[in-house]
């Protein structure tokens, strides 16, 4: 899904993270923020295979010992990066309309995936997850958090009578973003607002037809 606090740029959400976010917590929090931003930069430039803790420490201007002691391995660093991205994600849209909520979700995903930095970051993390179990677990947690957040839109729609009882909220949200990630990772077809709106409309139509009833 989808930011940018530690990982971001240009005001686009990693499925919704505000740029320049700095949370309280003193020096430890500042060090973590600097290291995670540096890790994101390194992933964008070199991919997971090129992620080196000493290089990250240099970029973040912190001691190598600090990085090795806290994260121990590149997989641990990527896992914490994904945790941070999930923690900083913005709340879901709440427009009172399922179609509008899911359109907002789809447009946010597209903005994230087409951002030069964020799109490259997601591709690098997904590639890493394909070959590293710890990164895969962290990626699954990230998307579980994002799907859980946006599932509230579907639950509200069921309560309003927009959708059949028993509709699986997570499946509806996943159906919105799945074709967008397919374009990013498989087909290479363009990603734009029209594509986002079509993905949202398709998910809404399927949900109303009862496709996602458990």
Automatic annotation (TrEMBL):
| Domain of life, source organism | Bacteria
Q: Which parts of the sequence belong to the HTH tetR-type domain? A: 29-89
Q: Which residue ranges have biased composition labelled Low complexity? A: 15-26
Give the residue ranges for region: Disordered: 1-26
DNA-binding positions are 52-71
**InterPro entries in the record, alphabetically?**
Homeodomain-like_sf (IPR009057), HTH-type_TetR-like_transc_reg (IPR050109), HTH_TetR (IPR001647), Tet_transcr_reg_TetR-rel_C_sf (IPR036271), TetR_C (IPR011075)
User: What keywords appear on the UniProt entry?
Assistant: DNA-binding, Transcription, Transcription regulation
User: Does the record bear Ligase in its keywords?
Assistant: no
Task: Kindly provide the name given to this protein in its UniProt entry.
Answer: Transcriptional regulator, AcrR family
Q: Quick check: keyword Zinc in the entry?
A: no
């Amino acid at each position: 899904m989808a930011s940018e606090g530690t990982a971001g740029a240009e005001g686009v959400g990693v499925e919704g993270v505000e740029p320049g976010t700095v949370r309280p917590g003193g020096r430890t929090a500042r060090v973590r923020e600097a290291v995670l931003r540096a890790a994101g930069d390194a992933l964008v430039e070199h991919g997971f295979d090129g992620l080196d803790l000493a290089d990250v420490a240099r970029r973040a201007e912190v001691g190598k010992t600090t990085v090795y002691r806290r994260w121990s391995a590149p997989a641990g660093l990527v896992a914490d990066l994904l945790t941070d991205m999930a923690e900083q994600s913005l709340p879901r849209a709440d427009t009172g309309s399922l179609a509008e909520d899911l359109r907002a979700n789809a447009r946010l995903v597209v903005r994230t995936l087409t951002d030069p930095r964020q799109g490259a970051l997601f591709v690098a993390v997904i590639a890493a997850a394909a070959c590293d179990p710890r990164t895969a677990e962290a990626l699954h947690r990230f998307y579980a958090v994002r799907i859980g957040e946006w599932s509230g839109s579907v639950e509200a729609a069921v309560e309003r009578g927009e959708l059949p009882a028993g509709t699986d909220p997570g499946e509806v949200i996943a159906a919105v973003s799945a074709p967008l990630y397919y374009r990013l990772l498989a087909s290479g077809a363009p990603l734009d607002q029209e594509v986002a709106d079509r993905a949202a409309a398709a998910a809404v139509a399927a949900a109303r037809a009862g496709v996602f009833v458990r």
